Amino acid sequence: MTDNHSFQVLPDSIAFGLRVLFIGYNPSLTSGEIGHNYAGRGNRFWRLLHDAGLTDYQVKPTEDRELLSIGYGFTNIVSRPTRRADEISRKEYAEGRIRLRDLIAEYRPKVACFVGKGVYEEYNGHRNIPWGVQPDSAVHGVIDFVAPSSSGLVRMKYEEILEIYKLLRQII
Q1: pLDDT in the model for residue 5
Q2: What tens digit of pLDDT does each residue of 47-100 get?
Q3: Does residue 61 lie within any of the structural domains?
């Protein structure tokens, strides 16, 4: 690495009995630097959770692991931090897909919420998927739910993204 930043692989924040396991592409450089999920300045994840009624207040990224107590866990299909998702290699996705399926099969959350269509496409290979609950889940008994990425780079209007996160609240 050519700069002085030190990046860490974010550990999974997971437990048995989760209501939702949130699954991202991979940590941002900011998340890798501070060791917490969805920590980028432009990321709207924590605001979306609160505005959708999934949390009682707007959680800070540094409180991510505390959400295990209310049944929310976090992982990524690839654990290496990058600036952009297009920096992830095909090999990393292939390895991540296997690890993720094993993780979901072992812990069996009620809902596996993929934060971004691209994450779900990499996970199961389907294309042209709808938002929300998927007709076929990869792990029997676990609901696959696809929500828009919370990245500030996403071009959807915030209100449209929020409506999809409100659907998640309804199913859990």
Answers
A1: 55
A2: 999 999 999 999 999 999 999 999 999 999 999 998 887 899 999 999 999 999
A3: yes
Helix, strand, coil percent values for the chain (each to nearest 5): 40, 15, 50
pLDDT of residue 7: 66
Please, are residues 114 and 139 in contact by the beta-carbon 8 Å criterion?
A: no
How far is residue 110 from each of residues 16, 21, 72, 103, 125, measured CA to CA in Å? 10, 8, 10, 13, 22
Q: What percent of the chain stands above pLDDT 70?
A: 96
The kind and range of the H/E element at 13 are none
Which residues are registered as beta bridge partners of 145?
A: 113, 133
72 pairs with which residues across the strands? 20
Q: What is the CATH number of the domain that holds 67?
A: 3.40.470.10
- Any domain includes 4: no
Report CA 93 to chain centroid distance, whole Å: 15
